Amino acid sequence: MMKLLIVSATEAEIKPLLDYLNSNWAKAETAGYTKNGNTIDICITGVGMVATTYELAKALAKQKYELVLQAGVCGAYDRQLNLGELVYISSEQYGDLGAEDHDKYLDVFEMGLVERYVFPFTDAELTAPKLSIPAIDKLKTVSGLTVNTVSGKTETIKRRIEKFDCEVESMEGAAFHFVCLSENVRFAQLRSISNYVEPRDKSKWKMKDAVTALNKWLIDFVEQENNLFK
Q1: C-alpha dihedral (121, 127, 129, 132), degrees to nearest 10
Q2: Global pTM?
Q3: 126 three-class SS
Protein backbone atom coordinates (compact mmCIF):
# COMPACT_ATOMS: atom_id res chain seq x y z
CA MET A 1 0.00 0.00 0.00
CA MET A 2 1.28 3.43 -0.84
CA LYS A 3 0.28 7.06 -0.71
CA LEU A 4 1.62 9.14 -3.59
CA LEU A 5 1.29 12.91 -4.02
CA ILE A 6 1.64 14.39 -7.51
CA VAL A 7 2.29 18.13 -7.57
CA SER A 8 1.92 20.39 -10.59
CA ALA A 9 1.77 24.14 -11.06
CA THR A 10 -1.15 23.91 -13.47
CA GLU A 11 -3.83 21.36 -14.27
CA ALA A 12 -3.03 21.65 -17.98
CA GLU A 13 0.42 20.14 -17.48
CA ILE A 14 -1.02 16.88 -16.11
CA LYS A 15 -4.48 16.79 -17.73
CA PRO A 16 -3.89 13.47 -19.57
CA LEU A 17 -2.92 11.90 -16.25
CA LEU A 18 -6.06 13.30 -14.60
CA ASP A 19 -8.19 11.92 -17.44
CA TYR A 20 -6.57 8.51 -16.96
CA LEU A 21 -7.14 8.55 -13.20
CA ASN A 22 -10.75 9.65 -13.61
CA SER A 23 -11.36 6.69 -15.92
CA ASN A 24 -9.36 4.01 -14.12
CA TRP A 25 -9.25 4.91 -10.43
CA ALA A 26 -11.98 5.67 -7.90
CA LYS A 27 -12.34 9.15 -6.47
CA ALA A 28 -10.97 9.40 -2.94
CA GLU A 29 -12.24 11.46 -0.04
CA THR A 30 -8.99 13.40 -0.31
CA ALA A 31 -8.04 15.45 -3.37
CA GLY A 32 -7.22 12.32 -5.32
CA TYR A 33 -7.88 8.72 -6.26
CA THR A 34 -7.79 5.17 -4.83
CA LYS A 35 -7.22 1.73 -6.29
CA ASN A 36 -6.44 -1.58 -4.59
CA GLY A 37 -6.01 0.25 -1.30
CA ASN A 38 -3.48 2.69 -2.76
CA THR A 39 -3.92 6.46 -2.93
CA ILE A 40 -2.79 9.10 -5.41
CA ASP A 41 -3.49 12.67 -4.33
CA ILE A 42 -3.15 15.66 -6.64
CA CYS A 43 -1.90 19.10 -5.60
CA ILE A 44 -2.31 21.89 -8.15
CA THR A 45 -0.27 24.68 -6.61
CA GLY A 46 -0.52 27.57 -9.02
CA VAL A 47 2.48 29.15 -10.73
CA GLY A 48 5.59 30.33 -8.92
CA MET A 49 7.53 29.75 -5.73
CA VAL A 50 5.14 31.48 -3.32
CA ALA A 51 2.05 29.54 -4.42
CA THR A 52 3.99 26.26 -4.58
CA THR A 53 5.37 26.66 -1.08
CA TYR A 54 1.96 27.46 0.39
CA GLU A 55 -0.05 24.73 -1.31
CA LEU A 56 2.57 22.00 -0.90
CA ALA A 57 3.12 22.81 2.78
CA LYS A 58 -0.65 22.61 3.34
CA ALA A 59 -0.85 19.24 1.60
CA LEU A 60 2.04 17.75 3.57
CA ALA A 61 0.56 19.02 6.85
CA LYS A 62 -2.65 17.07 6.18
CA GLN A 63 -1.22 13.74 5.08
CA LYS A 64 1.97 11.68 5.07
CA TYR A 65 3.18 10.33 1.73
CA GLU A 66 5.69 7.66 0.79
CA LEU A 67 6.63 9.67 -2.30
CA VAL A 68 5.97 13.18 -3.64
CA LEU A 69 6.43 13.88 -7.35
CA GLN A 70 6.54 17.30 -8.96
CA ALA A 71 5.55 17.08 -12.63
CA GLY A 72 5.68 19.91 -15.13
CA VAL A 73 7.36 21.47 -18.14
CA CYS A 74 10.48 23.59 -18.26
CA GLY A 75 12.85 25.47 -20.52
CA ALA A 76 16.33 24.16 -21.33
CA TYR A 77 19.58 26.10 -21.33
CA ASP A 78 21.38 22.97 -22.53
CA ARG A 79 20.90 22.49 -26.29
CA GLN A 80 21.95 18.84 -25.94
CA LEU A 81 18.53 18.24 -24.38
CA ASN A 82 15.73 17.55 -26.86
CA LEU A 83 12.39 19.32 -26.90
CA GLY A 84 9.86 16.91 -25.43
CA GLU A 85 12.54 15.04 -23.47
CA LEU A 86 11.75 14.10 -19.88
CA VAL A 87 14.42 14.83 -17.26
CA TYR A 88 14.95 14.28 -13.54
CA ILE A 89 16.05 17.43 -11.71
CA SER A 90 18.43 16.49 -8.93
CA SER A 91 19.27 19.97 -7.62
CA GLU A 92 17.84 23.48 -7.65
CA GLN A 93 19.16 27.01 -7.22
CA TYR A 94 17.50 30.40 -6.81
CA GLY A 95 17.99 32.31 -10.05
CA ASP A 96 16.82 35.81 -9.20
CA LEU A 97 16.60 36.07 -5.41
CA GLY A 98 19.15 38.72 -4.58
CA ALA A 99 20.14 42.26 -5.46
CA GLU A 100 21.46 44.29 -8.34
CA ASP A 101 24.69 46.07 -7.44
CA HIS A 102 25.04 48.47 -10.38
CA ASP A 103 25.95 46.11 -13.28
CA LYS A 104 26.58 43.13 -11.00
CA TYR A 105 24.06 40.63 -9.63
CA LEU A 106 24.46 39.35 -6.08
CA ASP A 107 22.49 36.34 -4.88
CA VAL A 108 21.29 36.00 -1.27
CA PHE A 109 24.32 33.89 -0.38
CA GLU A 110 26.79 36.48 -1.68
CA MET A 111 24.82 39.13 0.21
CA GLY A 112 25.30 37.17 3.43
CA LEU A 113 21.56 36.81 4.03
CA VAL A 114 21.54 33.01 3.76
CA GLU A 115 24.35 30.57 4.61
CA ARG A 116 25.46 28.33 1.74
CA TYR A 117 25.70 25.21 3.90
CA VAL A 118 22.82 25.69 6.34
CA PHE A 119 20.04 23.11 5.90
CA PRO A 120 18.30 22.61 3.56
CA PHE A 121 21.06 24.07 1.36
CA THR A 122 24.23 22.30 0.30
CA ASP A 123 26.67 24.81 -1.17
CA ALA A 124 23.73 27.09 -2.08
CA GLU A 125 21.87 24.24 -3.80
CA LEU A 126 18.74 22.33 -2.84
CA THR A 127 19.79 18.77 -3.60
CA ALA A 128 17.40 15.83 -3.72
CA PRO A 129 18.45 12.57 -2.04
CA LYS A 130 18.84 9.56 -4.34
CA LEU A 131 15.69 7.42 -4.48
CA SER A 132 16.80 4.31 -6.40
CA ILE A 133 13.49 4.05 -8.28
CA PRO A 134 14.21 2.35 -11.65
CA ALA A 135 11.73 4.43 -13.69
CA ILE A 136 13.36 7.62 -12.42
CA ASP A 137 16.94 6.32 -12.59
CA LYS A 138 16.50 5.80 -16.35
CA LEU A 139 15.89 9.52 -16.92
CA LYS A 140 18.64 12.01 -17.72
CA THR A 141 19.68 13.89 -14.58
CA VAL A 142 19.99 17.68 -14.78
CA SER A 143 20.32 20.69 -12.51
CA GLY A 144 17.59 23.31 -12.27
CA LEU A 145 17.35 27.06 -11.84
CA THR A 146 14.17 28.57 -10.40
CA VAL A 147 13.20 32.12 -11.34
CA ASN A 148 10.32 34.51 -10.81
CA THR A 149 10.86 36.07 -14.23
CA VAL A 150 11.48 33.56 -17.02
CA SER A 151 14.62 34.29 -19.07
CA GLY A 152 13.76 35.93 -22.38
CA LYS A 153 16.56 38.41 -23.06
CA THR A 154 20.06 37.63 -24.33
CA GLU A 155 21.85 39.48 -21.52
CA THR A 156 19.80 37.77 -18.80
CA ILE A 157 20.31 34.33 -20.33
CA LYS A 158 24.06 34.82 -20.65
CA ARG A 159 24.38 36.01 -17.06
CA ARG A 160 22.36 33.13 -15.64
CA ILE A 161 24.26 30.51 -17.64
CA GLU A 162 27.61 31.90 -16.52
CA LYS A 163 26.63 32.35 -12.88
CA PHE A 164 24.57 29.24 -12.17
CA ASP A 165 25.63 26.68 -14.81
CA CYS A 166 22.22 24.96 -14.76
CA GLU A 167 20.65 22.95 -17.55
CA VAL A 168 16.95 23.79 -17.14
CA GLU A 169 14.75 26.60 -15.82
CA SER A 170 11.35 26.62 -14.10
CA MET A 171 9.32 28.82 -11.77
CA GLU A 172 8.61 26.31 -8.98
CA GLY A 173 11.40 23.75 -8.60
CA ALA A 174 13.37 25.36 -5.79
CA ALA A 175 10.24 25.84 -3.69
CA PHE A 176 9.33 22.18 -4.16
CA HIS A 177 12.80 21.01 -3.13
CA PHE A 178 12.92 23.42 -0.17
CA VAL A 179 9.61 22.23 1.30
CA CYS A 180 10.27 18.52 0.74
CA LEU A 181 13.77 18.68 2.22
CA SER A 182 12.49 20.67 5.19
CA GLU A 183 9.65 18.19 5.80
CA ASN A 184 11.92 15.15 5.27
CA VAL A 185 9.76 13.46 2.64
CA ARG A 186 10.92 11.35 -0.31
CA PHE A 187 10.55 13.41 -3.47
CA ALA A 188 11.47 13.73 -7.12
CA GLN A 189 11.04 16.54 -9.61
CA LEU A 190 10.31 15.48 -13.18
CA ARG A 191 9.95 17.89 -16.08
CA SER A 192 9.62 17.74 -19.84
CA ILE A 193 11.45 20.23 -22.06
CA SER A 194 8.94 22.51 -23.79
CA ASN A 195 11.38 25.10 -25.17
CA TYR A 196 14.95 26.30 -25.18
CA VAL A 197 15.84 29.29 -23.04
CA GLU A 198 16.39 31.99 -25.64
CA PRO A 199 14.92 35.39 -26.57
CA ARG A 200 11.21 34.71 -26.24
CA ASP A 201 9.58 33.17 -29.33
CA LYS A 202 6.61 30.92 -28.53
CA SER A 203 6.38 29.77 -32.16
CA LYS A 204 9.41 27.56 -31.45
CA TRP A 205 7.93 25.96 -28.34
CA LYS A 206 6.84 22.30 -28.31
CA MET A 207 4.41 22.49 -25.40
CA LYS A 208 2.09 19.76 -26.70
CA ASP A 209 4.98 17.34 -27.21
CA ALA A 210 6.32 18.12 -23.73
CA VAL A 211 2.95 17.56 -22.04
CA THR A 212 2.41 14.31 -23.98
CA ALA A 213 5.83 12.92 -22.99
CA LEU A 214 5.40 13.94 -19.35
CA ASN A 215 1.99 12.33 -19.01
CA LYS A 216 2.97 9.14 -20.82
CA TRP A 217 5.70 8.66 -18.24
CA LEU A 218 3.34 9.46 -15.35
CA ILE A 219 0.66 7.05 -16.55
CA ASP A 220 3.21 4.30 -17.14
CA PHE A 221 4.60 4.93 -13.68
CA VAL A 222 1.17 4.71 -12.05
CA GLU A 223 0.25 1.58 -14.02
CA GLN A 224 3.24 -0.31 -12.65
CA GLU A 225 1.29 -1.10 -9.50
CA ASN A 226 3.10 -4.34 -8.68
CA ASN A 227 6.42 -2.50 -8.63
CA LEU A 228 5.31 0.90 -7.35
CA PHE A 229 2.68 0.19 -4.76
CA LYS A 230 4.19 -2.33 -2.34
Answers
A1: 180
A2: 0.93
A3: strand
